């Protein structure tokens, strides 16, 4: 295999084995990739940071938003602990999956009115839970 290399500014042709040729080719590709990567991160910022800097938009939540979301989720889970397993299951199918009372009734093998009663019971228990706990906003009406 013939390879062209530069030595002191002059291009020289050298005959090498296929293994050496493959090694030199991989090394050249790796050098090109590193060069591209170096240009992409010339000021040590990642791509999402460029978007924020150029457009003034943030595509991820702040640490404060993350903490509030986690705390709210924990409060809701604590409130749901006061419910029976059946009530919790029906409520989560309704609230998280967006299923109708009829669809939940078919899945759980019960009537639409039984599903409605379960969801109303969960709402009442959650309302009472948040009424008695130090919470700034009322999620449940």
TrEMBL record:
InterPro entries: RNA_pol_sigma70_r4_t2, RNA_pol_sigma_r3/r4-like, WH-like_DNA-bd_sf. Gene3D superfamilies: Winged helix-like DNA-binding domain superfamily/Winged helix DNA-binding domain. Residues 74-126 form the RNA polymerase sigma factor 70 region 4 type domain. Coiled coil: none annotated. SUPFAM superfamilies: Sigma3 and sigma4 domains of RNA polymerase sigma factors (SSF88659). Pfam families: Sigma70_r4_2. This is ECF-type sigma factor.
């Amino acid at each position: 295999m013939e390879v062209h290399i530069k030595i002191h500014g002059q291009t020289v042709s050298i005959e090498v084995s296929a293994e050496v040729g493959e090694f030199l080719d991989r090394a050249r590709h790796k050098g090109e990739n590193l060069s591209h990567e170096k240009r992409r991160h010339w000021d040590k910022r990642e791509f999402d940071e460029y978007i924020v800097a150029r457009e003034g938009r943030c595509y991820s939540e702040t640490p404060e938003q993350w903490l509030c979301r986690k705390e709210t989720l924990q409060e809701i889970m604590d409130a749901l602990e006061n419910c029976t397993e059946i009530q919790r299951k029906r409520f989560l199918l309704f609230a998280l999956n967006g299923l109708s009372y009829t669809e939940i009734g078919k899945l759980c093998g019960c009537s639409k009115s039984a599903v409605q009663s379960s969801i109303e019971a969960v709402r009442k228990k959650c309302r009472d839970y948040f009424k008695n706990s130090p919470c700034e906003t009322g999620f449940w009406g």
